[in-house]
């Protein structure tokens, strides 16, 4: 962190190899926690309360709705009849909050490796979970997510992987054996959604990620979200299934979303469809670009 007269600049090393870093001005105290990871929280005038993990921005109260709505509602509305949902990561509770808006979802299992993330979020970011941790439909499990998926004998309709980037403890959530375990833990009509990073900033690992998903799942697509606090271009999300599920009409999506609890601020049926339209450079990385003319 570097000092200013108004506070401290918190610097995120987005892509040090390319010399790309971002900075937010921390106003007031920076709170840290006793954690297995480098966990901290501070206030910023634009983004509100900001949680960082191992030096990377994880969630801000200003724009968290974008990421959480798109991670939750795209697979759930695409599925249309999900009853059991598994969330890997997501200790801030934002994805759980959105999943629980779906009245047809009967059980949510949230597997978080770090109790400190849950505790810090519940104390300092209660609006993110908005009571999700108190729902009788939610089961919180504090353990390693990759190990949980490998060992579970249950199957789920939707698995959502809210992982950090593939470094440190998060690296295992981007390995082929993890995707194979997710495949086994999905029902035949199930959907896996992953946080797939910024294709522009990290094309090499994004391309490996796309190949690994494609090697395991017969049906694989990517969709994009623009989250202001996640700088470096659009964020990609992997959408993987045993059978094709992402190509759902606006009319069907509209009908399925009519029963959602509360108002959404980002997701719409038209946006859902449009998010799967990829720019050519990302199509090329995914191996889905049409031949050049």
Question: How does this model look, in words?
Answer:
A hairpin with a 2-residue loop joins strand 1 (about 1-5) and strand 2. It contains ten helices and 13 strands. The strands form two sheets. A seven-stranded mixed beta sheet has the order 9-8-7-10-11-13-12, sandwiched between helices. The radius of gyration is 18 Å and the shape is globular. The protein has helices at about 65-80, 95-100, 115-125, 125-130, 145-150, 175-185, 205-215, 250-255, 270-275, 280-285, and strands at about 1-5, 5-15, 20-30, 40-45, 50-55, 55-60, 85-90, 105-110, 140, 155-160, 185-195, 220-225, 235-240. The chain is α/β, with parallel strands linked by helices and about 290 residues long.
Low-pLDDT segments: 1-6
Q: What portion of residues belong to β-strands?
A: 25-35%
Span from first to last CA? 49 Å
What is the topology, as strand order, of the major beta sheet? 9-8-7-10-11-13-12
Largest sheet: 7 strands, mixed
**Share in helix:** 25-40%
CA-atom Rg in angstroms: 18 Å
DSSP helix count?
10
- Choose one word for the global shape: globular
Number of strands: 13
Order of helices and strands: EEEEEEHEHEHHEHEHEHEEHHH
Report mean pLDDT, rounded to a whole number: 89
